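Help needed: design a sequence for this.
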């Protein structure tokens, strides 16, 4: 069974978080709207993998490592973008500041 499409009406950030936690898939929150990210293509995954390897090699010898971002939420309040990055740099076990 296919998941229903995300709501088209603007949501508050709290409504978006509740929606994302109760539906399968990856979503982003931009300007009050829920965007279904779908499944990354093979080319996208290959690029993210290669980029992660290169960043990790650049960080060799530091306390930082590249990690898959997973279900990381970048938004903090209504109307702020909530993006789903592919990669995350973690230093001393703590995620680097999101910019």
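Sure. Designed sequence:
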């Amino acid at each position: 069974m296919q998941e229903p499409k995300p709501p088209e009406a603007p949501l508050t950030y709290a409504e978006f978080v509740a929606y994302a936690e109760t539906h399968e898939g990856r979503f982003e929150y931009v300007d009050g709207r829920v965007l279904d990210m779908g499944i990354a293509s093979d080319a996208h995954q290959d690029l993210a993998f290669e980029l992660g390897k290169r960043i990790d090699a650049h960080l060799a010898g530091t306390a930082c490592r590249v990690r898959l971002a997973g279900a990381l939420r970048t938004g903090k309040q209504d109307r702020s973008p909530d993006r789903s990055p592919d990669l995350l740099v973690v230093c001393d076990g703590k995620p680097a500041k999101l910019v």
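The chain has a mean pLDDT of 78.
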